[in-house]
Specification:
Elements: E1 4-6, E2 11-13, H1 15-37, E3 42-48, H2 52-67, E4 71-77, H3 83-95, E5 101-104, H4 114-120, H5 132-140, H6 148-160, E6 168-172, H7 179-188, E7 192-196, H8 203-208, E8 212-215, E9 233-236, E10 240-243, E11 249-252, H9 257-260, E12 266-267, H10 275-294
Parallel strand pairs: 2-12, 3-4, 3-5, 6-7, 6-8, 8-9, 9-12
Antiparallel strand pairs: 1-2, 10-11
Helix pairs in contact: 1-10, 6-7, 6-10
The structure holds guanine (GUN).
Guanine binds at residues 103-106, 128, 148-149, 278.
Protein backbone atom coordinates (compact mmCIF):
# COMPACT_ATOMS: atom_id res chain seq x y z
CA UNK A 1 0.00 0.00 0.00
CA UNK A 2 1.27 3.50 -0.71
CA UNK A 3 1.03 5.41 2.52
CA UNK A 4 0.89 8.96 1.43
CA UNK A 5 0.98 11.41 -1.41
CA UNK A 6 2.86 14.65 -1.00
CA UNK A 7 0.72 17.72 -1.43
CA UNK A 8 2.58 21.06 -1.41
CA UNK A 9 2.54 21.27 2.38
CA UNK A 10 1.01 18.37 4.21
CA UNK A 11 1.12 14.61 3.80
CA UNK A 12 -2.25 13.39 2.55
CA UNK A 13 -3.65 10.71 4.85
CA UNK A 14 -5.19 8.19 2.47
CA UNK A 15 -8.14 6.76 4.39
CA UNK A 16 -9.58 5.20 1.27
CA UNK A 17 -6.49 3.03 0.69
CA UNK A 18 -6.11 2.22 4.40
CA UNK A 19 -9.78 1.19 4.60
CA UNK A 20 -9.44 -1.07 1.55
CA UNK A 21 -6.48 -2.80 3.25
CA UNK A 22 -8.44 -3.21 6.49
CA UNK A 23 -11.47 -4.64 4.64
CA UNK A 24 -9.19 -7.12 2.87
CA UNK A 25 -7.81 -8.16 6.29
CA UNK A 26 -11.35 -8.67 7.59
CA UNK A 27 -12.19 -10.77 4.51
CA UNK A 28 -9.07 -12.87 5.02
CA UNK A 29 -9.98 -13.49 8.69
CA UNK A 30 -13.62 -14.22 7.80
CA UNK A 31 -12.40 -16.90 5.36
CA UNK A 32 -10.34 -18.49 8.17
CA UNK A 33 -13.38 -18.44 10.51
CA UNK A 34 -15.49 -20.15 7.88
CA UNK A 35 -12.94 -22.89 7.32
CA UNK A 36 -11.80 -23.30 10.93
CA UNK A 37 -15.09 -22.87 12.80
CA UNK A 38 -17.75 -23.16 10.09
CA UNK A 39 -18.80 -19.65 11.11
CA UNK A 40 -19.97 -16.81 8.88
CA UNK A 41 -20.45 -13.60 10.93
CA UNK A 42 -23.71 -11.74 10.31
CA UNK A 43 -24.42 -8.00 10.47
CA UNK A 44 -28.00 -6.74 10.79
CA UNK A 45 -28.65 -3.15 9.72
CA UNK A 46 -31.95 -1.47 10.59
CA UNK A 47 -33.08 1.56 8.60
CA UNK A 48 -36.22 3.41 9.60
CA UNK A 49 -37.56 5.82 6.97
CA UNK A 50 -35.91 7.23 3.87
CA UNK A 51 -33.21 9.72 4.92
CA UNK A 52 -31.19 9.96 1.65
CA UNK A 53 -27.75 9.97 3.33
CA UNK A 54 -28.75 6.99 5.48
CA UNK A 55 -29.98 5.10 2.40
CA UNK A 56 -26.54 5.54 0.79
CA UNK A 57 -24.70 4.40 3.94
CA UNK A 58 -26.93 1.36 4.38
CA UNK A 59 -26.53 0.29 0.75
CA UNK A 60 -22.73 0.60 1.06
CA UNK A 61 -22.66 -1.30 4.33
CA UNK A 62 -24.65 -4.18 2.84
CA UNK A 63 -22.43 -4.39 -0.25
CA UNK A 64 -19.14 -4.26 1.67
CA UNK A 65 -20.36 -6.77 4.29
CA UNK A 66 -21.01 -9.30 1.53
CA UNK A 67 -17.67 -8.49 -0.12
CA UNK A 68 -15.95 -9.27 3.20
CA UNK A 69 -17.55 -12.73 3.14
CA UNK A 70 -20.08 -12.06 5.91
CA UNK A 71 -23.87 -12.25 6.00
CA UNK A 72 -25.82 -9.00 5.66
CA UNK A 73 -29.37 -8.71 6.98
CA UNK A 74 -31.22 -5.52 6.08
CA UNK A 75 -34.40 -4.45 7.84
CA UNK A 76 -36.14 -1.48 6.24
CA UNK A 77 -39.05 -0.07 8.18
CA UNK A 78 -41.43 2.75 7.19
CA UNK A 79 -40.91 6.20 8.71
CA UNK A 80 -44.19 5.77 10.61
CA UNK A 81 -42.72 2.85 12.61
CA UNK A 82 -43.51 3.05 16.32
CA UNK A 83 -41.20 2.59 19.26
CA UNK A 84 -42.64 -0.78 20.32
CA UNK A 85 -42.30 -2.23 16.83
CA UNK A 86 -38.65 -1.17 16.58
CA UNK A 87 -37.88 -2.49 20.08
CA UNK A 88 -39.49 -5.81 19.16
CA UNK A 89 -37.25 -6.08 16.08
CA UNK A 90 -34.14 -5.28 18.16
CA UNK A 91 -35.18 -7.99 20.61
CA UNK A 92 -35.55 -10.53 17.81
CA UNK A 93 -32.10 -9.62 16.48
CA UNK A 94 -30.63 -9.94 20.00
CA UNK A 95 -31.97 -13.47 20.16
CA UNK A 96 -31.07 -14.50 16.60
CA UNK A 97 -27.91 -16.69 16.71
CA UNK A 98 -27.07 -15.80 13.07
CA UNK A 99 -26.76 -12.11 13.99
CA UNK A 100 -23.42 -11.07 15.50
CA UNK A 101 -23.72 -7.33 15.01
CA UNK A 102 -26.72 -4.98 15.17
CA UNK A 103 -26.63 -1.46 13.77
CA UNK A 104 -29.66 0.81 13.96
CA UNK A 105 -29.00 3.61 11.50
CA UNK A 106 -29.25 7.10 13.00
CA UNK A 107 -30.93 9.53 12.94
CA UNK A 108 -34.26 7.91 13.84
CA UNK A 109 -37.62 9.62 13.22
CA UNK A 110 -38.88 11.97 15.95
CA UNK A 111 -41.49 9.59 17.41
CA UNK A 112 -38.71 7.17 18.40
CA UNK A 113 -36.71 7.47 21.61
CA UNK A 114 -33.18 6.88 20.28
CA UNK A 115 -31.63 6.30 23.74
CA UNK A 116 -34.19 3.59 24.51
CA UNK A 117 -33.49 1.82 21.23
CA UNK A 118 -29.71 1.93 21.70
CA UNK A 119 -30.13 0.66 25.27
CA UNK A 120 -32.16 -2.31 24.01
CA UNK A 121 -29.30 -3.64 21.82
CA UNK A 122 -27.32 -6.50 23.38
CA UNK A 123 -24.00 -4.78 24.28
CA UNK A 124 -22.06 -7.75 22.88
CA UNK A 125 -23.77 -7.27 19.47
CA UNK A 126 -23.47 -3.46 19.64
CA UNK A 127 -20.99 -3.06 16.75
CA UNK A 128 -21.60 0.72 16.75
CA UNK A 129 -20.36 0.91 20.36
CA UNK A 130 -23.18 3.32 21.26
CA UNK A 131 -24.66 1.36 24.21
CA UNK A 132 -23.90 2.94 27.61
CA UNK A 133 -22.24 -0.31 28.69
CA UNK A 134 -19.73 0.01 25.85
CA UNK A 135 -19.27 3.74 26.52
CA UNK A 136 -18.55 2.80 30.15
CA UNK A 137 -16.14 0.04 29.15
CA UNK A 138 -14.23 2.49 26.94
CA UNK A 139 -14.11 5.10 29.71
CA UNK A 140 -12.84 2.60 32.30
CA UNK A 141 -10.36 0.78 30.06
CA UNK A 142 -12.30 -2.49 29.78
CA UNK A 143 -12.46 -4.35 26.45
CA UNK A 144 -15.67 -3.62 24.53
CA UNK A 145 -17.09 -2.43 21.23
CA UNK A 146 -15.59 0.94 20.20
CA UNK A 147 -17.52 3.39 17.97
CA UNK A 148 -16.39 2.98 14.36
CA UNK A 149 -15.60 6.55 13.32
CA UNK A 150 -13.29 7.42 16.23
CA UNK A 151 -11.72 3.95 16.00
CA UNK A 152 -10.98 4.60 12.31
CA UNK A 153 -9.44 8.00 13.19
CA UNK A 154 -7.23 6.35 15.81
CA UNK A 155 -6.03 3.69 13.35
CA UNK A 156 -5.05 6.40 10.86
CA UNK A 157 -3.26 8.37 13.57
CA UNK A 158 -1.31 5.36 14.82
CA UNK A 159 -0.34 4.43 11.27
CA UNK A 160 0.75 7.89 10.17
CA UNK A 161 2.07 9.35 13.45
CA UNK A 162 3.14 6.25 15.37
CA UNK A 163 3.43 6.56 19.15
CA UNK A 164 0.92 9.19 20.35
CA UNK A 165 2.09 9.21 23.97
CA UNK A 166 2.51 12.68 25.46
CA UNK A 167 1.14 14.54 22.45
CA UNK A 168 -1.40 17.33 22.87
CA UNK A 169 -4.66 16.23 21.26
CA UNK A 170 -7.58 18.60 20.77
CA UNK A 171 -10.96 17.14 19.80
CA UNK A 172 -13.42 19.76 18.56
CA UNK A 173 -16.94 18.40 19.15
CA UNK A 174 -18.47 16.59 22.11
CA UNK A 175 -20.95 14.16 20.56
CA UNK A 176 -21.48 10.69 22.02
CA UNK A 177 -20.78 9.19 18.58
CA UNK A 178 -17.46 10.87 17.78
CA UNK A 179 -16.12 13.57 20.13
CA UNK A 180 -16.37 11.82 23.51
CA UNK A 181 -15.20 8.35 22.40
CA UNK A 182 -12.40 9.96 20.34
CA UNK A 183 -11.19 11.75 23.45
CA UNK A 184 -11.30 8.49 25.43
CA UNK A 185 -9.29 6.65 22.78
CA UNK A 186 -6.64 9.39 22.67
CA UNK A 187 -6.45 9.36 26.46
CA UNK A 188 -5.94 5.60 26.31
CA UNK A 189 -2.94 6.33 24.04
CA UNK A 190 -1.57 8.67 26.75
CA UNK A 191 -2.27 11.91 24.90
CA UNK A 192 -3.01 15.08 26.84
CA UNK A 193 -6.58 15.56 25.68
CA UNK A 194 -8.72 18.67 25.40
CA UNK A 195 -12.36 18.48 24.28
CA UNK A 196 -13.38 21.79 22.72
CA UNK A 197 -16.94 22.70 21.74
CA UNK A 198 -19.27 25.56 20.84
CA UNK A 199 -18.78 27.27 24.21
CA UNK A 200 -14.98 27.03 24.22
CA UNK A 201 -13.32 30.41 24.66
CA UNK A 202 -10.83 31.36 21.96
CA UNK A 203 -11.20 28.13 20.01
CA UNK A 204 -8.45 29.03 17.50
CA UNK A 205 -5.93 29.43 20.35
CA UNK A 206 -6.97 26.09 21.88
CA UNK A 207 -6.58 24.38 18.49
CA UNK A 208 -3.16 25.96 17.90
CA UNK A 209 -1.92 24.01 20.92
CA UNK A 210 -2.71 20.68 19.26
CA UNK A 211 -0.17 18.23 17.89
CA UNK A 212 -3.25 16.21 16.88
CA UNK A 213 -6.38 18.09 15.91
CA UNK A 214 -9.64 16.19 15.34
CA UNK A 215 -12.55 18.24 13.96
CA UNK A 216 -16.02 16.73 14.42
CA UNK A 217 -18.52 19.57 14.60
CA UNK A 218 -20.44 19.57 11.30
CA UNK A 219 -19.50 23.13 10.32
CA UNK A 220 -18.20 23.40 6.77
CA UNK A 221 -14.54 24.50 6.50
CA UNK A 222 -14.52 26.03 10.00
CA UNK A 223 -10.89 25.18 10.86
CA UNK A 224 -8.50 27.61 9.15
CA UNK A 225 -4.71 27.60 8.71
CA UNK A 226 -4.13 30.05 11.56
CA UNK A 227 -5.88 27.59 13.96
CA UNK A 228 -3.25 24.93 13.27
CA UNK A 229 0.22 24.46 14.75
CA UNK A 230 2.79 24.02 11.95
CA UNK A 231 3.40 20.30 11.43
CA UNK A 232 0.28 19.17 13.34
CA UNK A 233 -1.75 16.14 12.21
CA UNK A 234 -5.30 17.14 11.29
CA UNK A 235 -8.16 14.63 11.17
CA UNK A 236 -11.36 15.90 9.57
CA UNK A 237 -14.50 13.97 10.55
CA UNK A 238 -16.93 16.44 8.96
CA UNK A 239 -19.03 15.57 5.92
CA UNK A 240 -20.90 18.68 4.79
CA UNK A 241 -22.66 19.28 1.50
CA UNK A 242 -22.25 22.85 0.24
CA UNK A 243 -23.54 24.54 -2.92
CA UNK A 244 -21.18 25.16 -5.85
CA UNK A 245 -21.36 28.05 -8.33
CA UNK A 246 -22.95 25.80 -10.98
CA UNK A 247 -25.93 24.99 -8.73
CA UNK A 248 -24.65 21.50 -7.86
CA UNK A 249 -23.23 20.55 -4.49
CA UNK A 250 -19.91 19.23 -3.22
CA UNK A 251 -18.69 17.54 -0.05
CA UNK A 252 -16.38 19.41 2.29
CA UNK A 253 -15.15 18.69 5.80
CA UNK A 254 -15.01 20.80 8.95
CA UNK A 255 -11.49 21.83 7.93
CA UNK A 256 -10.64 24.31 5.18
CA UNK A 257 -8.50 21.74 3.37
CA UNK A 258 -6.62 23.98 0.91
CA UNK A 259 -5.81 26.56 3.60
CA UNK A 260 -4.83 24.08 6.35
CA UNK A 261 -2.76 21.89 3.98
CA UNK A 262 -0.22 24.72 3.83
CA UNK A 263 0.66 24.41 7.53
CA UNK A 264 -0.34 20.93 8.74
CA UNK A 265 2.16 18.07 8.75
CA UNK A 266 -0.51 15.59 7.66
CA UNK A 267 -4.22 15.90 6.90
CA UNK A 268 -7.20 13.73 5.91
CA UNK A 269 -9.13 14.78 2.80
CA UNK A 270 -12.94 14.85 2.50
CA UNK A 271 -14.03 12.65 0.84
CA UNK A 272 -11.51 9.80 1.04
CA UNK A 273 -10.20 10.34 4.56
CA UNK A 274 -12.11 9.26 7.67
CA UNK A 275 -15.36 8.28 5.86
CA UNK A 276 -14.20 4.97 4.33
CA UNK A 277 -12.62 3.95 7.66
CA UNK A 278 -16.00 3.94 9.43
CA UNK A 279 -17.44 1.03 7.43
CA UNK A 280 -14.13 -0.87 7.48
CA UNK A 281 -14.12 -0.60 11.31
CA UNK A 282 -17.76 -1.70 11.42
CA UNK A 283 -16.85 -4.89 9.53
CA UNK A 284 -13.88 -5.42 11.84
CA UNK A 285 -16.11 -4.93 14.92
CA UNK A 286 -18.61 -7.46 13.50
CA UNK A 287 -15.89 -10.07 13.03
CA UNK A 288 -14.59 -9.44 16.56
CA UNK A 289 -18.10 -9.60 18.04
CA UNK A 290 -18.69 -12.95 16.31
CA UNK A 291 -15.54 -14.40 17.91
CA UNK A 292 -15.97 -12.84 21.36
CA UNK A 293 -19.60 -13.95 21.69
CA UNK A 294 -18.60 -17.56 21.06
CA UNK A 295 -15.33 -17.53 22.99
CA UNK A 296 -13.37 -18.14 19.76
CA UNK A 297 -9.85 -16.86 19.20
CA UNK A 298 -9.68 -14.07 16.64
CA UNK A 299 -7.91 -15.40 13.51
CA UNK A 300 -4.29 -14.18 13.22
N1 LIG B 1 -25.47 7.67 11.14
C1 LIG B 1 -24.34 8.30 10.72
N2 LIG B 1 -23.23 7.63 11.13
C2 LIG B 1 -23.67 6.55 11.80
C3 LIG B 1 -23.01 5.46 12.44
O1 LIG B 1 -21.77 5.36 12.50
N3 LIG B 1 -23.82 4.54 13.01
C4 LIG B 1 -25.17 4.64 12.98
N4 LIG B 1 -25.88 3.68 13.58
N5 LIG B 1 -25.81 5.63 12.40
C5 LIG B 1 -25.07 6.57 11.81
Amino acid sequence: MTDSTNTPGATLIDGKAFAATLRAEVARKAAILKQRDNLVPGLAVVLVGHDPASEVYVRNKGKLTLEAGMHSFEHRLPDTTGQEELLALVQRLNEDPAVDGILVQLPLPDQIDTDAVLAAIDPDKDVDGFHVVNAGRLATGLPGMVPCTPLGCLMLLKHYVGDLSGLNAVVVGRSNIVGKPMAQLLLRESCTVTIAHSRTRDLPAVCRNADILVAAVGRPQMVKADWVKPGATVIDVGINRIPKEDGKTRLVGDVDFDDVSRVAGAITPVPGGVGPMTIACLLNNTLEAACLRRGLALPE
